[in-house]
Predict the 3D structure of the following.
Amino acid sequence: MSSEHQAEREEHVTRQVLESFAGSTTPRYREIMEALVRHSHALVREVRLTEQEWEQGIDFLTRCGQISDDRRQELILLSDVLGLSMLTIAANAPEEPTATESTVFGPFFVDGAPEVPFGGDIAQGASGQPCWVSGQVRGTDGSPVAGARLDVWEADDGGLYDVQHEGDVTQGRGHLFSDEQGGYGFWGVTPTPYPIPHDGPVGDLLAAAGRSPMRPAHLHVMVTAPGYHRLVTHAFVAGDDNQRGDAVFGVKESLVADFVEQPAGSPNPTGRRLDGAWRKVSFDIVLNPETRTDERRSIPSGRREGA
Ligand code: BEZ
Ligand code: FE
């Protein structure tokens, strides 16, 4: 068969599949599914995918599903290591340069973590060096945001989140609210670099690519407040070499903060009894108001068509 015939046979398949989405329930669903078909079919053509390779791909996705449960989210991991999570964040980033930047959500957030008061301890027995985290929540116009909800979560100094330990402990996570001046403060542990779970299919993917599973040390922060866009971000620890090779591409320079070591015995903000050295970090948060972003984000229709 000539290469012309071959190309026509392949295009016929793609055309048929595209047409099958003509009756989609919403235009947006049709737009996304057609793009999925176009791009995935282009991949098959570009690499001349063999049937055996496609079976391996199906097997990989099957294993991702099988290993997932309410504590293990392999498909989030897959999205993260392929950079799809960070690309989606970049595609939706507000144009407001002063707003705190977003980064990956990751698979370890748990709904319903306990509330801690100002000065409370989210570690709740998680191992690690005590760390005082404080700052102010403001809008992009500089005004303090009172009553903002901060959900925070982090791994212990063994690099594990509570949900990765046996049993039902809640450690290294909680939520709190900013005060009248937008201020917040809580105790946690000093973040440590850790590998993302790599004993499953996503770990196999990283190994086959010669990639490291390491993430730089970080604290997760999610901030919600009425009238503002939800912010999902991290505070990264300055001086951590792992920032150059984050397995999930989540590092942003603006999110790197000094976690300053304080000698044993030095006074601490809540008068807590501490046995050794501790750290403190100041991490201010600037939220993007809902209306302002939404107005700026309306893309002229000409640009959309060309995209
Ligand atoms: C995390 O930071 O918790 C995380 C993010 C992406 C993949 C795995 C873990
Ligand atoms: Fe994390």
Q: What stands out?
A: Residues 77, 80, 104, 106-108, 196, 215, 248 surround benzoic acid (ligand 1) (CB under 6 Å).
